Amino acid sequence: MSEPREVIAQAAGVNVRLANADDLGGIMTIERAVFEHEAWSAEAMRRDMLDANCYYLVGELVATGQIVGYAGLLCGAGSGEGDIQTIAVRPTVRSRGLGRVMMADLIAEAGRRGATRLFLEVRSDNPVAIGLYRALGFVEVGVREGYYQPDNVDAVVMKLEPVPGGPSSRKLGPIGSELTNPPAIGEWPKDGAC
Ligand SMILES: CC(C)(COP(=O)(O)OP(=O)(O)OC[C@H]1O[C@@H](n2cnc3c(N)ncnc32)[C@H](O)[C@@H]1OP(=O)(O)O)[C@@H](O)C(=O)NCCC(=O)NCCS
Fold it and tell me: Ligand 1, closest atom to CA 84?
């Protein structure tokens, strides 16, 4: 993979850019510290990062270049939907806006790829992440009981629809069409995400 360095977005003291294979070590350091026994393996993370259907960002400190956050989207062009795969920020760099700007760019990328809806799953005992997702327009659409093991914690399934910048956000239907064409209930992402 090439080494894109273009700054996509910024939070306080942090530049956000596309991830590349050289970032795997920095990402895994955070992944293991933050998610502990639920952490992905380095091989699984590498495979996801390099998958053409995925889009991964890293946040790096402007001062030192240290990787302090990452976030990933799965959204195949033409699939019409996407999943937020993961997001994490080093504890010492939280509440500076990095999580929000990375999420905003994943959402924008999903729109560019033509997604009309975006899903994620989050532990029900994670109010900070749930608050962030709600602030970005995600709504709760279901619960997967005991999804996170061995902690036996439920997964809250959240959905963003329409995706800003996506096809359905660009066309306006007739007033009242939402009543005659209501969104389907009980739609689920195909696999676990985030
Ligand atoms: C969720 C996470 C990525 C947010 O990253 P962050 O860089 O701290 O987030 P931001 O600074 O952009 O804050 C975004 C929003 O999160 C919420 N938030 C952030 N810090 C918070 C805190 N200490 N208490 C409550 N809410 C908080 C707020 O809604 C905030 O919006 P606001 O800035 O408009 O108030 C980060 O907390 C994290 O890495 N958590 C552990 C990993 C994790 O839970 N990942 C999600 C798995 S689904």
Answer: 48
